[in-house]
Amino acid sequence: MDSSVVVLGRILDAATEEFGHKGFSGAKVDAIARRAGVNKAGLYYHVGTKEKLYEAVLLRLFGQVAGALERAVPADADPRQGFAGLTGALADLFGRLPMLPRIMAMEMASGGATMPEAAMAEFRRIFAVTLTILERGRTAGLLRPAEPVFVHLTLVGTLVVYSLSKPLRRRFAAAARDLGLRLDLPLAEAAAFLADTIARGLSVDAAPGEEHHATS
């Protein structure tokens, strides 16, 4: 493999850690360079400014998310099973890339204040997976119409929060022991629960009493 590609990979890995822990404003180029094992001149040579570095990190992360979701929800799949593919892929990504949900949460909280326009195209691909599931399900008569934004944020946002809440859930476990709560369930179980809940709620054969809660 080209040595420059290896160095760039190290820089992006280091930058992902720094931005994930400290956000764009708090991240330091010096710290990223040290973590990557290069000097600042080398970092600027391979990537450019701090803004360009952040853009490269987001493009790589969001590109991985978009690609994984697109592969997890093939065009010929039952739309009702698409939710499980989407949440399962996200749970796997969050497990392998722990800085991903942190950076996603920071961007949500800031209103995308530091998100470069180039990253919006990858973000659009991510949202399109949810939209496609809903449209295919409605066209096939399997899913009732629903507001895509609500569905997408329910699935993605809940998994982001559950992933990031792990340290807090651990602390709360002792105080809530008498409540019998299971606070250490793996992210994959949360993903399966979400997918099943949304699929059942939007299914055309949902019980009459469930319909009011599922429609937008």
Q: What would the keywords be for this entry?
A:
single chain, 216 residues, mainly alpha, 11 helices
The share of residues in extended strands comes to under 5%
Oligomer: single chain
| Record field, number of beta strands | 0
Structural class: mainly alpha
Summarize the structure.
With 216 residues, this protein is an all-alpha fold.
Overview of the structural elements:
Helices cover 76% and strands 0% of the residues. The chain has 11 helices and no strands. α4 packs parallel to α7, α7 crosses α8 (148-164) and α8 (148-164) packs antiparallel against α10 (187-202). Residues 210-216 have low confidence and may be disordered.
Secondary-structure map:
Blueprint: H1 3-26, H2 29-36, H3 40-46, H4 50-72, H5 79-96, H6 99-110, H7 117-139, H8 148-164, H9 166-175, H10 187-202, H11 208-214
Helix pairs in contact: 1-2, 1-4, 1-6, 4-5, 4-7, 5-7, 5-8, 5-10, 6-8, 7-8, 8-10
